[in-house]
Amino acid sequence: MSADHNTPQHIKLHRKSRELELIYSDGAQHRLSCEFLRVYSPSAEVRGHGRGQEVLQTGKKFVDINDIIPVGNYALQLVFSDGHNSGIYSWGYLRELGEQREALWQDYLQQLHEAGASRDPDEQVVTLFDPAAGKPEA
């Protein structure tokens, strides 16, 4: 894919639905939730510094985008309501997120489930007893 193909022609932030809409010259159109963009931030804080160092993002269900800052002619910096602002979303990465949104979202939900974590910041999941371990957790 050429850089031109990855560059959105229009970018719209829908505040009520908390979605970023990207419209491309080839007719592709993607709507990505603020939560989705936050949990898939390309920042080192989220991705780590290598494979296996990713940090599962929890409690991001109600996060918003407060600001969108263009970075040169190749990316956006998104400023989130939880203070996160270190991810630089290249045009190619945004296109990839849009094209793989459903699979990535299902993977994220599975990771939350396996971790016993929640999308809701007000819902804390605490495991007091793990039957597989046969003893209360410390």
Q: How would you describe the overall organization of this protein?
A:
There is one protein chain. By secondary structure, the protein is of the alpha+beta class. It has a single domain (3-136), classed as NE0471 N-terminal domain-like. Helices cover 28% and strands 25% of the residues. It has helices at 3-6, 34-39, 44-47, 91-99, 101-115; strands at 10-14, 19-23, 29-33, 65-71, 75-80, 88-90, 129-130, 135-136.
Attribute tags:
3-stranded antiparallel sheet, 8 strands, 5 helices, NE0471 N-terminal domain-like, alpha+beta, 138 residues, single chain
Helix content: 25-40%
Radius of gyration: 17 Å
Total number of β-strand segments? 8
Q: Spell out the helices and strands N to C.
A: HEEEHHEEEHHEE
Adjacency order of strands in the biggest sheet = 1-2-3
State the major sheet.
3 strands, antiparallel
How many domain units? 1
